[in-house]
Amino acid sequence: MKKFAQSIVKRPAFEYFIIGLILFNAVLLGLETSPWIMERYGVWLLYGNHFVLAVFILEAALKIIAVAPRFRLYFGDGWNLFDFSIVVLSLIPATGEYAMIARLARLLRVARLLSTIPELRLIINTLVRSIPSMGHVLMLMSIIFYIYAVAGYHLFHENDPTHWRNLGTSLLTLFRVVTLEDWTDVMYAAMEMHYLSWMYFVSFVVLGTFVVINLFIAVVLNNLEEAKQEQLAELQAPASKDEILRELRQTQEALQRLQQKLERGSDGATNKHDD
């Protein structure tokens, strides 16, 4: 049973089938947003969701059986835990007080593409690796925001209390500016009080948008390169003792089968010669 499970989960066709099933599930979830389709084909969509869930449960069972009895190989992998958690949450009944949780859990099945496609896994791993480095960039950005928010309050709150009436509102206004969404309206309102107010906004846009955002990009690209190097090193890593022993056993079994075939062929040739 273990060998059968291993032979299935290691096949590329099985992986492609799971990816196709996730995309099929995504289409079903999208169709459920149409009242017209739900009224006429809701039962079939429900059957489709049950089928997808059954396959996902079977997939998890096969992967667990494939590593038995060393279950830590499955549950020790974060991506396997992610997939397993989605399957467990999908078992919540879609009725009663837990109906909303069940619907959200079904929506999470689409997120399984992140764990199924290696390129997406690499991107997610890169983002996770970037979190510690991003903390320093966020600290720098927080300092810039705080300084400009306090300065903006003192400079503009009397003329434009809508955007600068207190520290919290000033921070929200600066967030609007840094997203470059209609920030010129805020700047023109401030320039009505003093025409040099544009220097405040332009300097903040340069620091907050171009400098800090580029720092984020630099951190992510650096960690992406490191993640690629680690992935390459794992592929080039020497085989473990268990892998070598498994390959030796498989080779030994193949040689034994070949020897048995040769012996049967030799016995058949001898009998024909005697006849």
How would you summarize what this structure contains?
With 275 residues, the chain is mainly alpha-helical. Helices cover 83% and strands 0% of the residues. The protein has 2 domains: 2-116, Voltage-gated potassium channels. Chain C (Four Helix Bundle (Hemerythrin (Met), subunit A), Up-down Bundle), CATH 1.20.120; 121-235, Orthogonal Bundle (Helix Hairpins).
Instruction: Estimate nothing, just give the exact number of structural domains.
Output: 2
Summarize the helix and strand pattern as letters.
HHHHHHHHHHHHH
Q: Mean pLDDT across all residues, rounded?
A: 81
Rg? 30 Å
Q: Which overall shape is indicated by the principal axes computed on the Cα atoms?
A: elongated
Helical content, roughly? over 70%
Runs in which pLDDT lies below 50 for 5 or more consecutive residues are none
Task: Give the beta-strand count.
Answer: 0
CATH T-level topology of the largest domain: Four Helix Bundle (Hemerythrin (Met), subunit A)
Strand percentage lies at under 5%
Q: What is the correct CATH architecture of the largest domain?
A: Up-down Bundle
Number of helices, where a helix is a run of at least 4 consecutive DSSP H or I residues: 13
In the CATH scheme, the class of the largest domain would be Mainly Alpha
How far apart the termini lie comes to 44 Å
